[in-house]
Amino acid sequence: MNFSYEAMGRTVRTLRRQQKLTQEVLSGLAGIARTHLTMIENASIHANIETIWKLALALGMRPSDFFACVEREITSSEEQDV
Predict the structure, then answer these.
(1) What CATH fold (topology level) applies to the domain 5-81?
(2) Are 53 and 42 a contacting pair, CB within 8 Å?
(3) b/e 27-47 (16+ beta carbons within 10 angstroms → b)
(4) Distance from the CA of 73 to the CA of which of 4, 33, 46, 52 falls in 20 to 30 A?
(5) Whole-prediction pTM
(6) Are 63 and 52 in contact (CB under 8 A)?
(7) Tens digits of per-residue pLDDT, 52-62?
(8) Kind plus residue range of the DSSP H or E element containing 77
(9) Residue 75's CB: how many other CB atoms inside 10 A?
(10) CA distance linking residue 7 with residue 66, whole number of Å
(11) Backbone angles phi, psi at 57, to 5 degrees
């Protein structure tokens, strides 16, 4: 299994939408710019660990739980590619 910024972006977007948060609200809770969040969700930039940590907490979850969600997304994507 390889890390995927695309899977991480999809995970952020999915979790944000499940909680019915706009990009504006989530980025405010995480203390990042909305445009930065947009680029993370689209995988056009690579977020550093501090930003990922802030996003996880803003989504009300432990960073380890967030990474578990990313791992499931990667696994799901790999299974669909087979």
Answers:
(1) 434 Repressor (Amino-terminal Domain) (1.10.260)
(2) no
(3) beebebeeeebeebbebeeeb
(4) 33
(5) 0.91
(6) yes
(7) 999 999 999 99
(8) helix 63-81
(9) 12
(10) 12
(11) -65, -40
Q: Which CA distances in Å does 46 have to 20, 33, 37, 53?
A: 24, 15, 11, 13
Domain ranges within the chain, ordered by starting residue: 5-81
What pLDDT digit, counting tens, does each position of 5-47 carry?
999 999 999 999 999 999 999 999 999 999 999 999 999 999 9
Q: Which residue has the tokens 């390889």?
A: 2
Distance (Å, rounded) from C-alpha 75 to C-alpha 69? 10
Q: Which residue has the tokens 């999809």?
A: 10
Nearest one of 60, 75, 81 to 15, comparing CA atoms: 60
Query: Hey, what amino acid is at 37?
Result: L
Cα angle: 76, vertex 77, 80; to 5 degrees: 90
